[in-house]
Amino acid sequence: MKYMLLIHQGHAPTPRSPEAWASLSEEEQRAVFDDYRAISATRGVTPGMELAPPEEATTVRVENGETLATDGPFAETKEAVGGFLFFEADDPASAIELAARIPAARMGGAIEVRPIVAR
């Protein structure tokens, strides 16, 4: 089964938030990078990408045949998706175990593990 792991950054420090990132020691920063590297090297993982912040998004709707584009996300959220990856695993427990290794999960964020529907 394939899973998509959606990384909700929450208030987890990232290099994109210099003040929060600077609050981590060099050792903690290195550990975050090493953890992400190790996760990307895990068998069955297809690395995803980091996403720009929600305020850089455009939300698109079509109403009465007209395309409407709005700046930013549709809804305000404290746990915006900051990135994603794919994981092919034998069971949901393996996907949950991998999700627990993602630094954001232990640093104030959350990881959504969602099975991919194969049709």
Number of domains: 1
Please write the string of helix (H) and strand (E) elements.
Answer: EHHEEEEHHE
Q: What fraction, in percent, of the residue positions are helical? A: 25-40%
Number of helices: 4
| Estimated share of beta-strand residues | 25-35%
Provide the CATH topology. Alpha-Beta Plaits
Major β-sheet strand ordering: 2-5-1-6
Question: What oligomeric state is this?
Answer: single chain
- Radius of gyration, whole Å: 16 Å
Question: Mean of residue pLDDT?
Answer: 88
Unreliable runs, pLDDT <50, ≥5 residues? none
Per CATH, the class reads Alpha Beta
User: At the fourth CATH level, what is the homologous superfamily?
Assistant: Dimeric alpha+beta barrel
Question: What structural class is derived from the secondary structure elements?
Answer: alpha+beta
Describe the largest sheet.
4 strands, antiparallel
